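hiii, so i know i said id send this last week but things got crazy w the move. better late than never?? heres the sequnce for the chain we talked about at the cafe, plus the structure i predicted for it. fair warning i was half asleep when i ran it
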Amino acid sequence: VQLVESGGGLVQPGGSLRLSCAASGFTFSTYTMTWYRQAPGKERDMVARISGAGGVIDYADSVKGRFTISRDNAKNTLYLQMNSLKPEDTAVYYCKTFIRPVHYWGQGTQVTVSS
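okay and structure toks below
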């Protein structure tokens, strides 16, 4: 199993970024995928989660209305569209899946929101 995030970077407040997570080594469409983030000195928190077929989606309250999670099962890729970014969104963003009994994580991509 391999998860590789990309798309992070430096963006001004109010700007947008789209993160991608390329998955391999498992049947991608079968599994729920989750985006997490971890800011310096803080715990890793769930940002958004999407079921295998995409029909069930959850968001953290802090990102509702600004972030959109999606997936392309034909491309084995998970996305996170982030709009109206705020300085408090600054963190390393990770994608994760759980294939019993193991939680698989990507290496993370840095998102910095600053003027």
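btw Residues 37 and 112 are 12 Å apart (CA to CA). thought thatd interest u
miss u guys!!
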